[in-house]
Every structure is written in structure tokens, then in C-alpha cells.
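Sample intake sheet
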Amino acid sequence: MAALTEHYTLALPAFDAPVRLLIVVAPYYRAIADDLIAGARATAEEAGATVDLVEVPGALEVPTAIAMAGRLAQYDGYVALGCVIRGETTHYDTVCNDSSRGLTLLGLQGLCIGNGILTVENMDQAVVRADPQGQNKGGGAAAATLHLIALQRRWAGAKRPVGFGRDEGPRDVIRLAGELDGSAQG
């Protein structure tokens, strides 16, 4: 199979109202995490977004922290960062699959999330992907978040979400299903 050597990247969206991002990073491999953060911060800055940063112990905790922030804080979007390197056991598969699945489920509930958790075979691959002057996967995750925020604002009439699952914010999947089948209360 031929390798693709060219990648198309969308231009960053422009915003009329301020954008507030939360970067949630698992710094297990500190040098990799620092490069991912640098790339994400630079992309956010280029788009005029403000950024807060929190650290969690590992990639499995990233979706949980984002879910808590989605309920309890007021961010427009989230950038998930970290690195999982294959080891000798199946733990790698669990961490990769479950962290990705958690982020996907939160995204399907309405949160704007860019997934920058690297899943690689070795440290050399991680270094190339994290390098802000290289593949810049941290910047790519921030850009993905910004694009989702732009879509959300466009489709919501530029209303800034308060938090998923709250009456005044985007509806969660469970409550929406109850409204569709008539079992929702209030």
C-alpha cells in the first residue's frame, strides 16, 4: 500500500465571541506531554482562545476529568492529551480503547473534544508525533476542538453552552431519548 505524503489541514476557524479551552493531559511521559501541550497552546493562541490546563495520572482518567469539567465548569471545548506506548501486556489495548471510547461517548453527548492521546509502538514514534515542529498532534487536537466549537456555535445560533446535561445547556442522550418515547418528566 502506498503511503500518503500530503495531508490537507483546514484553516482555523474565526470566532466572534471568546473561546475557552481546557487541556486535560496525562503526563506519564513528561517530555512527550510537554510537546503535545506546546502544540495545543500555540494552536489555541493562533485562534485567539484562552486555555486552562489540568493534569491527570493517566490516559484512562482523561475522559473522566473532561466529563467532570463538562458538568461543573464552563469551557467551550476540551483537548485530550497523553501518550500510550505498547508494552508487553494487553494493558496497552485496554488503555487505548477505553480512553478513546470514553472521549467518543462524551463527544456524542455534545462536548467538543479533540483527541490528542497518542497510541504508539515505541518512544521514537511518540517523539515524531508530539513534536510541535513535526507532526504536531497536540496542535491537531486543539484545531479539531476549535472546529467542533465553530460548528456547535453555528448550529446553536452562537449560544455558548453552559454544560452538558443541564437544562440550559445541550441535552444529554438519556433525557432526549425519554422525550422521544414520551417518558421524560418535567
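Comment: The chain has one domain: 19-157. The chain has a mean pLDDT of 89.
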